[in-house]
Inverse folding.
């Protein structure tokens, strides 16, 4: 039976995990020093290795040579944990086992010693979905568990874990995986699978994952199924609904020339080809952000998730604008993306939004406007001051009295 790439190449040791150096280093040192905690919280966005790291930690603790930071990978414990069938490593899906009754069963299970291994390890996935009452039932067990019990709570929403639980565990925050590391990982997998993929195609796949290894590998699996052993950027973009940098170069050129016609033609082309206009607005914001970063930090910056060719193109386009212009464009594009989420006429909103970008580029800074106004103004000639009038001359003329005043 076919096994998807994300499972086939799932890391089996700390060295195989992409990124998360701070987590790997701390856990390896803790195991080497025999300072193993009874409770851990692994939090972070999806697909960054939380459950994978929990399984690797379980292998390190229950390996026949352990506890060791380098499990052998061939003993019964290591192979069973890798296959997900270890008796003393219990994985619980908190999304479907979130009630107080399930936690009471877990609490009773903790009391019994491991059947074979050194530790009985409980990996609770999506732990934030456990109810408050269930957490309360588990509170005393996590605070003072038996010496053979280790709890690992994996969650994407750590703020939903009660403070009483979090204070009894060691908390590790998993970060988004670096773009270059993700591209290098997929390049290695493509070599193992006999797939020829160019750098730009891998960059598109890495961007689609947005820092998630699992999402990127799922997109890679889909691209291989679609294109076979040769992956090209154009085919991958068409498959994932991504936009090439050439589309956004049209926007940059129109802004540089202050020409609204290409904007309307672009929206019409997107509408005719059935593209998602809201997704285009989102990617336009990302493009303008990359332009701003490239304008400030240059071509070699790590802050832009793009291939080498795309970075060079971004630097070339960014040179057409000032930092103030790009900041203004980015702010307007974010407003456009927000409005499109609730728009009943997305085409009209997108057209108006792109035209606002054009007209925003024609705005003149207030300093320049004041300087131009002051420079064009002709000096006012001083008028001669009239000499002071005498008292008699300055007094108002006396009028003749009326008959009623007599």
């Amino acid at each position: 039976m076919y096994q998807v790439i994300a499972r086939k190449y799932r890391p089996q040791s700390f060295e195989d995990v992409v990124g998360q150096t701070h987590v790997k280093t701390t856990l390896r040192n803790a195991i080497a020093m025999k300072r193993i905690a009874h409770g851990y919280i692994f939090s972070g966005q999806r697909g960054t290795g939380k459950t994978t790291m929990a399984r690797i930690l379980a292998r390190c603790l229950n390996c026949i040579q352990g506890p060791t930071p380098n499990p052998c990978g061939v003993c019964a414990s290591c192979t069973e944990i890798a296959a997900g069938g270890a008796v003393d490593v219990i994985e619980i899906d908190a999304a479907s086992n979130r009630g107080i009754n399930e936690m009471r069963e877990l609490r009773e299970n903790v009391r019994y010693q491991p059947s074979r291994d050194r530790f009985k390890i409980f990996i609770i996935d999506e732990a934030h979905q456990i109810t408050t009452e269930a957490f309360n039932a588990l509170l005393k067990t996590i605070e003072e568990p038996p010496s053979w019990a280790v709890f690992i709570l994996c969650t994407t929403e750590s703020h939903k874990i009660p403070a009483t639980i979090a204070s009894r565990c060691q908390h590790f925050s998993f970060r988004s995986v670096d773009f270059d590391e993700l591209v290098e990982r997929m390049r290695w997998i493509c070599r193992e699978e006999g797939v020829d993929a160019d750098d730009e195609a891998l960059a598109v796949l890495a961007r689609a994952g947005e820092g998630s290894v699992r999402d990127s590998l799922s997109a890679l699996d889909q691209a291989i199924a679609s294109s076979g052993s040769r992956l090209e950027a154009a085919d991958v973009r068409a498959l994932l609904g991504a936009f090439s940098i050439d589309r956004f170069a049209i926007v940059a050129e129109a802004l540089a020339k202050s020409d609204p016609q290409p904007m309307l033609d672009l929206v019409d082309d997107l509408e005719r080809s059935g593209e998602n206009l809201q997704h285009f607005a989102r990617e336009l914001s990302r493009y303008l952000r990359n332009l701003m970063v490239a304008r400030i930090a240059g071509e070699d910056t790590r802050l832009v998730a793009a291939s080498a060719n795309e970075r060079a193109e971004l630097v070339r386009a960014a040179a057409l604008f000032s930092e103030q212009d790009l900041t203004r464009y980015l702010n307007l594009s974010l407003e456009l993306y927000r409005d499109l989420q609730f728009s009943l006429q997305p085409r009209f909103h997108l057209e108006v939004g792109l035209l606002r970008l054009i007209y925003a580029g024609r705005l003149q800074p207030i300093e320049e406007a004041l300087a131009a106004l002051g420079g064009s103004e002709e000096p006012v000639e001083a008028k001669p001051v009239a000499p002071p009038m005498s008292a008699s001359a300055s007094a108002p003329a006396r009028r003749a009295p009326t008959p009623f005043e007599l």
About this structure: The first strand starts at residue 39 and ends at 44. The chain has three domains: 5-174, 179-240, 245-361. The chain has a mean pLDDT of 86. The two ends are 127 Å apart (CA to CA).
